[in-house]
Amino acid sequence: MWVSRISCLGTQAVKILTRGLLFGHFVRIPRTPYIHVSSSRLLQLLPQTPQYFCTTSAADSSEDGNEEEQTINVTFVETDGMEKHCKVPIGTNMLEAAHSNDIELEGACEGSCACSTCHVIVMDMDQYNRLPDPTDEENDMLDLAFGLTETSRLGCQIEAKPEMDAIRLALPVATRNFAVDGHKPKPH
Ligand code: FES
Q1: Can you give the pLDDT at residue 73?
Q2: I need a labelling partner for 126 at 20 to 30 A (CA). Which of 24, 72, 116, 161 fits?
Q3: Is the pLDDT at 140 greater than 80, yes or no?
Q4: Measured from the CB, is residue 114 less than 6 Å from ligand 1?
Q5: pTM, whole model, 2 decimals?
Q6: Ligand 1 neighbour 172 (Cβ under 6 A)
Q7: Does the beta carbon of 117 sit less than 6 angstroms from any atom of ligand 1?
Q8: Helices (H), the chain
Q9: Would residue 155 be called left, alpha or beta, if left means φ above 0 and alpha means ψ between -120 and 50 degrees?
Q10: Ligand 1 pocket test target in 95, 135, 184 with most atoms within 8 Å of CB
C-alpha cells in the first residue's frame, strides 16, 4: 500500500515538475491561466504528503564507535577466589575501577602513590609485561606491600589502555597500611 502511494505521489510530482520545466515554471492550475511560480511555490502546489522520517536514532549513530565510550575487560579475583568481570573505561585506573564495581580494594591514600593498600597482582606475565613500567615512587611503595610478587603493581597507578584488554588482577589476601593507619576510604 505504501509503495503504491509513494509511487502515485512520485508520479504527480514528476508531472508538475515536468510542466514547470516545459513551461519555464509556468504551471497550469485547473480552471486558471498559466501562472509563473517560484520553485518553492511549485513544491507547495504538490499534494499534501505524509512526513517520512529517517528511522536512524541518535543511539544508532553512536554504533559506529565514534561516540561510544571505549572500555576494556578487566577481571578482579577477590581473596575468596570469586571473579568479577568489569568493563573499565579507557583512562580509568584500577583502583577507581574496583570501587565502581564494589570490589573491596583498599586505597588509603586515594591514589596518590603514598601507600601500598591498592596492591594488586597481575595474574598473567604477558599482561604484566604489557603494562608501562612502574615509576620509582610506585616501586618504593610496592616494597612495603604485603605478599609482594614479581607481577605486583599498585592498582591506582595502572590506567586502562586498549592493550590491557582481558587483564586479570588478583587482590592479595592482606595489605599493609603504613601511610594512613586504619583509614579505609569508601568507594566513590
Ligand atoms: Fe595509595 Fe594506590 S591508593 S598507592
Answers
A1: 98
A2: 116
A3: yes
A4: yes
A5: 0.61
A6: no
A7: yes
A8: 2-22, 39-44, 58-61, 94-100, 125-130, 136-142
A9: alpha
A10: 95
Render pLDDT for 64-79 as a digit per residue (tens, 0 to 9).
545 578 999 999 999 9
Strands 71-77, 119-122: pairing kind: unpaired
- b/e string for 158-170 if b means 16 or more Cβ within 10 A? bbbeeebeebbbb
Q: First and final CA of the chain: distance in angstroms? A: 57
> Which three three-digit cell numbers place residue 64?
559506529
Grid cell of 4 as nine digits: 503504491
Please state, in angstroms and rounded to a whole number, the distance separating the CA atoms of residues 150 and 154.
Answer: 12
Is pLDDT larger for residue 187 or for residue 140? 140
Contact 185, 96 (CB under 8 A): no
pLDDT of 69: 84
- For residue 85, the SS3 value is strand
